[in-house]
Amino acid sequence: KDEQLEAIGEECKNLILSLPKEYGFGNQYFYFFQGFWTTAAQIQSIISFQNHFQAKDSDVVVATVPKSGTTWLKALTFAIINRHHFSSLHNHPLLTSNPHELVPFFELNIYTDISWQFAKLDLLNMIEPRIFGTHIPFHSLAKSIKESNCKIIYICRNPFDTFVSYWNFMNKIALNQSLPTSTLEDDFEKYCEGLCHVGPFWDHMLGYLKESKARPNKILFLKYEDLKEDINFHVKRIAEFLGCPFTQEEESNGVIENIINLCSFEKMKGLEANKSGVLGKIYDKKYFFRKGEIGDWINYLSPSMVDKLSKIIEEKLSGSGISF
Ligand code: A3P
Q: 185 or 177, which is more confident?
């Protein structure tokens, strides 16, 4: 029985009941909605978002595959955009708030009943540029986001590490709620079938990639590994893309380095604001900071799993320009 479905209004419930349903990643029911897999509660939020959200040209949307570096990219985007407001690093909001408290998700925080701490967010009067987060695939974003001049920064990550990060995250949440955890093997099969939140991952990546090629000024397509390799280059690239490039003076004053350090894994993980406290009752803030490394999958996946996922990546993404 899908507990989430019980809490949903009649009209939406009927729609959900008409959709293909599978038991997927993290012991959850998933429905195939608008070409991707998601949960009942999310469908309700996504429909509300699609019907109501009005984008402004100045908006910035951080779009991601879950566990691909959302927290990091939200922090970087917030720090880059607001660098003139918080030039002193002593009073920076990222020192006292988790990035998810500063950059709300459409589907998880704004258009939902379980709104974490954003219940009273006044969308019309938010300070501009407004920054939002989302895991929703490109084709299912609200029409006004696609049609306005607002900007989207997208990040994905190699599927091996994304899977391992996701599996650890979901199991911590399950343990926290005294729910059964799922085995690595079971969840791996679901992941490979695309049966996880906003899966399959390859369609998610390809949707944003296609649009970033068609409209490079609208969508910036990034990979976690590239940011890890050269964060300085990417911080500058993000600022240029957002129309707020760093000046020579800022560069020589160390503004870029300050942002990089403020948003670094080590710095963020060590902050009290990220070590304790809970988002939305079940997400301990510390769960968003695990290892922050490339290649931790080696400690989890068997050779046959690596072989299987490699083949899927090859089959689905070869020729697209996305490689890991
Ligand atoms: P690991 O589980 O591999 O450590 P998301 O933010 O999309 O939920 O992704 C979480 C992943 O990003 C986790 O990966 C987490 O440790 C890592 N992460 C969080 N903050 C980071 C940061 N500032 N820099 C680099 N990686 C970070």
A: 185
Pocket test for ligand 1, best of 62, 64, 65, 72 (most atoms within 8 A of CB): 72
Rounded (5°) CA angle 293-297-298:
110
User: Is 135 tagged catalytic?
Assistant: yes
Which backbone phi and psi does 39 adopt, to 5 degrees? -90, 165
Q: Helices 303-317 and 201-214: crossing angle, nearest 10°?
A: 30
Residue 105, ligand 1, Cβ within 6 A: no
Q: What digits encode the pLDDT tens for the residues 54-64?
A: 999 999 999 99
Residue 147 Cα, ligand 1 centroid: separation in angstroms? Answer: 31
- 3-class SS shares of the chain: helix, strand, coil, % to 5: 50, 10, 35
Q: Is the CB of 268 under 6 A from ligand 1?
A: yes
pTM of the entire predicted model? 0.97
**Tens of pLDDT, residues 228-286:** 999 999 999 999 999 999 999 999 999 999 999 999 999 999 999 999 999 887 899 99
Q: Is 275 exposed, middle or buried (0-12, 13-18, 19+ CB in 10 A)?
A: middle
The rounded Cα 118 to chain-centroid distance in angstroms is 17
Tokens representing 14 are: 């009927």
Q: In this predicted structure, what is the pLDDT of residue 114?
A: 61
Does ipTM exceed 0.90? yes
Burial class (CB in 10 A: 0-12, 13-18, 19+), 144: middle
Q: Read off the amino acid at residue 89.
A: L
Q: Which one-letter amino acid corresponds to residue 103?
A: V
Q: Tell me whether the omega of the peptide bond preceding residue 20 falls within 30 degrees of 0, making it cis.
A: no
CA proximity to 201, closest of 41, 309, 321: 309
Q: How many CA atoms lie within 13 A of 200 on its CB side?
A: 14
Structure tokens at 231: 């964060």
Q: Which of 293, 291, 232, 268 lies closest to 101, judged by CA? A: 268
CA triplet 215, 217, 221: central angle to 5 degrees? 75
